[in-house]
Specification:
The structure is a homodimer.
Chain A: H1 19-39, H2 45-49, H3 51-60, E1 76-79, H4 85-95, H5 101-105, H6 135-154, E2 166-171, H7 172-176, H8 178-190, E3 195-201, E4 204-205, E5 208-209, H9 218-224, E6 228-234, H10 238-248, E7 255-260, H11 275-278, H12 283-293, H13 304-310, H14 313-333, H15 335-345, H16 353-367, E8 371-372, H17 373-385, E9 391-395, H18 399-402, E10 420-422, H19 427-440, E11 444-450, H20 458-467, E12 472-476, H21 494-499, E13 505-507, H22 512-524, E14 530-533, E15 538-539, H23 548-553, E16 557-560, E17 568-571, H24 574-588, E18 594-597, H25 601-605, H26 609-616, E19 622-625, E20 640-642, H27 653-659, H28 664-675
Parallel strand pairs in A: 1-2, 2-3, 3-7, 6-7, 9-10, 9-11, 11-12, 12-14, 13-14, 17-18, 17-19, 19-20
Antiparallel strand pairs in A: 4-5, 8-15, 16-18
């Protein structure tokens, strides 16, 4: 084994695998290609190439209990190159998880627990959903970060109740993706030394040999990030890989172990080729591969020695039992902290949550402040942080603009825990790291950028929704109201386009109270991500009718009604005040109207039909007003939409609102045309 | 000056600026902070910090002609840290571009030519729109790539009609962004040695000193990409920077010049602080800064020596005249190539374009193939590539799945030009590089990935639309029809969410002919990007009525009508065949219906009202069918949408379509309910 000269750790020389390890690794290979063959779809190359690495980690290092995949102090394991799902499923099956052979046979079939790519919540032992490359390692950075912070917060001398590692498998694809750059750079800066990444360096990606498009010196790149790099490890030597992992444990930096492997290893004709990557080997090549591996067993028949070799139930049960004993000691000495730890891991709300929210909302209604909703957001954070120590805020280098820090939050720095993360200009990395934090448990992550740059992190927002994780994405400067920075920075399509992501709540509050309710509901939705959209500019406080707070919680409500209303104006965020101005103007012209504020269409859409009908009115023409694209609003059977279907312009906000027709006069005229 | 040990080039030692250079640099500083002050908004820090670098590049190296910003062989210059727009505007103004002082005074005002961030098409001399960090350098990679390929294609011995450099200014923000990683890694692999990036290494980003979140060893990182790195340059020494640029010109690699600078240099109280970055200095600090710089002139009054020092009109005019003479020689010796070069630069279509398209569409109608539309796309590429040598295809490591290569395309490799780029697993980088290629001119870039991963590149797609560039984004595997790879890979919201981007055409064709029309229209839209969405699975060839091809060109048309139709079924892509099956079933049940295929809603929406009304029918209930989110379709006043508002599942495509209700029976029942 060659060892990289800089900041790396020496490990033992490569040794050939023992017969026992060979058997275990080959079992992964065979089960993987048999399952892919049965599904007529899938990726045999990675499981066959990383089989020995899997054996090294899972039989010698990985601390977990198959009987309890939710054990709080388990090591985390991520297959960032998620197309290699059969590697993970094989390991889970062999190690004793509740993933019987029937599920392996049903690989990639509807409602099986063995989806095409690993999905958290579907398969026991899967820690995050992977497949979109690069995000798994970023999730791993989030988990390692959460582990460090949680340990700093809860551990007591001699009572390390939080003390585990995060292991990540990744491939060339993950390393090409920009999100791996963002997350790994941050991990290096923060020296997350309990993160161990194992790189499947097989020189192959889907298009063929990577030398044509990917020639980075990976060890050098990761050294530039401040990682501990263990280079040149023989990825087919279980002992060499194991020694590298052992060495990684002593580093004060995150470690990248570069494992030289052969994709599809074992397949006489496909090993080392792109063809091994993503298609079934086929009957003939499977026959040849079985011969080459000396594997005499039929498909889905696994010798008992394999199960014996992988079985982690006894070891894992003992590890968890030890931890339970430790935790019992902790609980005896620190009952308050122990209870709090349990609450945090269970995502429970604090006992005084409802009172805190109610009191704060009452205060908002009382103060009637006209401020930017981004400032209203910060005030809500300030209020709720008093009872939510799990708040872990952050910003992609726009802290002073996004206002996601608060008076008692300390910035997270290397060796110095805190409650607010300066993620740097890394929107995608931030969002994927947040998902990792949420998946780890113990914290409620939120992170921010300008709404337009939600584009950069869009797939991580989608992944939060798919995984049902409580990541809260704060997006400020939510319209042309951003002003002079111009069209590159002004959101036009973003509010609506976020609304199209299934399972995601999108809030665009209109004033201080709506902002505070949005935050409260986002916190309470423990199995759903939320995006909170806030204005750069001041928005007037809205006088509300009785019951309005419940209406905000329902996503939409009648803000201002008029006897004999002839039309309904629907609006969100900064346009609600405009709608009220138009209502007033129309009233002066003898046209009574109703104004409905819809801070969250997704929440509103989940309400009972009769509630929605009562709010929207029936038989009355409707007009929607929002400083964004118009297409979305037709679902509410409107007659017209006052919106923007072009890009913005660079000018002061007030000039722009006028330029784009966001005036009481234009809204009033549109309403009158809709009535006519 | 320290010089990095590896793969770097020695340059002369740092020397203090001459009085003349000091004057020029200070003129940039003063004009920038005065313009920001007048706008009460903007970013003085970067222009003040990079002023000397601007002087070095613009007075000693940058080859351009202010009188003709469209000169084909000009050097390209990009401010990737686009918030420093006033640096660029100052330079353009001083050098003699058509950007009078009146425009500088109107910085950030509506309809000025001095937008908050540089915008191509608005300001003469601006080569790309920047502001969303990291994309400018990626655009620069695309320009350098286009320059190399175009030179390889057109230059003749002694007649280098394409021979220029691409210079990029960038900052810490750009380097934190993942897209810089993706694009710069590719640039290193391809050894784009005419790319020179100048890094504003000032240790500051918006949140403060970057040491808390950004501690990369940048020279080492870029060496890992295979770049020539010139480290430790004094960014306030014009001569040192100039020498580094001179050294860069001799490298066989792209060059990164790391310039140590002080943000806001010149401002006594803000230099070196984050406060200098993004807010006006204020009257008091401006006074102190003027004193510190020894600048006696009033705001917007610039001494003649400054204009004299920067004036590039004579030099640039002579450079272009030399090139014109060279081109005349070229034209005399190679008239065909010269004409073709001019056509390519002007984005003209070849003379036989219409005939080629018509003949190919006739062949599609004749062959009646039932194939996947991704294959139909490849066939169209094959047909059109015969007359479009400007086709420059590519894929983010899914070439065999996206099918964006063709029989005569050669892969682009280091030192080996071609027509198809293996971008690696770098969707965002690919898309931003494509935009750079389009901006450079000479090529029509297209690049591909799975539709779901359009998320990764979303902001580059937006930027193509904002910049009105003909980048063609090919997205295959466009629905649950992708099958077993599961919900991480299945598009649900993407078709509709792309439709929300202003100025972007989205095509989702239903068969071979529609696919070929989509390609043709995308090629013809020279000032607009298009996204072409194709199926993984086979789609049946559709028998069409007379005039259908014109109807496809219009984005939507009556595919199949029935006398006395009682409802209209709208469908796109893979659901058009389903709509026809439902129509048949309904006919058997005595319910005549019309089926409308809408391959492009954006194109359809641009048609005259009477055409749209005729296609959609009036007074008839409408039902839309699309394997994606339903919200979008209500704008067509439908009664119901057969769609999917949850994530997909991992299973074979046929199973999934049934599972999610995409059956003739369900569509027919929905239509009957809509009629009732």
């Amino acid at each position: 084994m060659t060892v990289n000269a800089t900041s790396s750790t020496a490990v033992s020389a490569s040794t050939p695998n023992s017969p026992g390890d060979t058997l275990l690794a080959n079992a992964i290979r065979v089960l993987s290609f048999d399952a892919v063959e049965a599904a007529k779809s899938g990726h045999p190359g990675m499981p066959m190439g990383m089989a020995d690495i899997g054996v090294a980690l899972w039989t010698r290092h990985y601390r977990h209990n198959p009987a309890n995949p939710a054990w709080a102090n388990r090591d985390r394991f991520i297959v960032s190159n998620g197309h290699g799902s059969m590697l993970h499923y094989s390991l889970l099956h062999f190690a004793g998880y509740d993933l019987p052979m029937e599920e392996i046979r049903n690989f990639r079939k509807l409602h099986s627990r063995t989806a095409g790519h690993p999905e958290v919540g579907i398969t026991p032992g899967v820690e995050t959903t992977t497949g979109p490359l690069g995000q798994g390692i970023a999730n791993g950075v989030g988990m390692a970060l959460a582990e460090w912070l949680l340990a700093s917060e809860f551990n007591k001398p001699g009572l390390p109740i939080v003390d585990h590692r995060t292991y990540v498998f990744l491939g060339d694809g993950c390393l090409m993706e920009g999100v791996s750059h963002e997350a790994c750079s941050l991990a290096g800066t923060l020296r997350l030394n309990k993160l161990v990444a194992l790189y499947d360096d097989n020189n192959i990606s889907i298009d063929g040999k990577v030398e044509g498009w990917f020639t980075e010196d990976i060890p050098k790149r990761f050294e530039s990030y401040g990682w501990n790099v263990i280079g040149g490890v023989d990825g087919h030597s279980v002992e060499a890989v194991s020694a590298a992992i052992e060495a990684a444990k002593t580093s004060d930096r995150p470690t990248l172990i570069c494992c030289k492997t052969v994709i599809g290893k074992g397949s006489p004709n496909r090993a080392g080729t792109a063809k091994a990557h993503g298609e079934a080997l086929g009957a003939e090549e499977i026959k040849l591969t079985r011969e080459a591996l000396g594997w005499a067993h039929a498909p889905f028949e696994i010798p008992a020695e394999v199960y014996a070799g992988f079985d982690a139930r006894a070891r894992g049960g003992a590890q968890e039992a030890d931890w339970n004993a430790l935790f019992a000691q902790y609980e005896a000495q620190f009952p308050t902290e122990a209870a709090e730890f349990k609450r945090r891991i269970a995502k429970g709300l604090p006992a005084n949550w409802s009172e805190t929210v109610a009191a704060y909302l009452a205060a908002c209604e009382d103060k009637k402040e006209t401020i930017a909703t981004r400032k209203a957001s910060q005030n809500a954070i300030e209020a709720y942080a008093k009872v939510l120590p799990e708040f872990l805020g952050g910003s992609a280098d726009l802290t002073g603009s996004n206002l996601t820090n608060w008076s008692t939050s300390k910035p997270v720095r290397v060796g110095q825990p805190g409650q607010h993360i300066n993620y740097g200009v890394r929107e995608f990395g931030m969002s994927a790291v947040m998902n990792g934090i949420a998946l780890h448990g113990g914290y409620l992550p939120f992170g921010a950028t300008f709404l337009t740059f939600s584009d950069y992190s869009r797939n991580a927002i989608r992944m939060a929704a798919l995984m049902k994780q409580r990541s809260i994405f704060v997006f400020t400067h939510d319209s042309i109201g951003l002003g002079e920075d111009g069209p590159t920075h002004q959101s036009i399509e973003h509010v609506s386009s976020l609304r199209l992501i299934p399972g995601l709540d999108v809030w665009r509050p209109a004033d201080t109270t709506e902002s505070a309710v949005a935050w409260a509901v986002a916190v309470e939705q423990v199995n759903r991500p939320s995006t909170l959209l806030f204005s750069r500019q001041n928005l007037p406080f809205l006088s509300k009718p009785a019951g309005a707070i419940e209406g905000i919680r329902r996503g939409g409500y009648v803000l201002s009604d008029a006897p004999g209303a002839k039309a309904v104006i629907l609006a969100t965020g900064s346009e609600v005040g405009l709608a009220l101005d138009a209502q007033k103007l129309l009233a002066e012209q003898g046209v009574p109207t109703r104004v409905v504020s819809i801070p969250s269409t997704s929440v509103f859409d989940r309400q009972p039909a009769d509630y929605k009908a009562a709010v929207l009115g029936s038989g009355l023409p409707r007009v929607a007003v929002e400083a964004g694209v118009t297409d979305f609003w037709w679902k509410y059977r409107v007659e017209a939409v006052v919106g923007i279907d072009t890009f913005g312009e660079s000018a002061p906000a007030g000039v722009l609102f006028k330029h784009f027709g966001f005036t009481p006069e234009n809204v009033a005229n549109t309403v009158k045309a809709a009535i006519a």
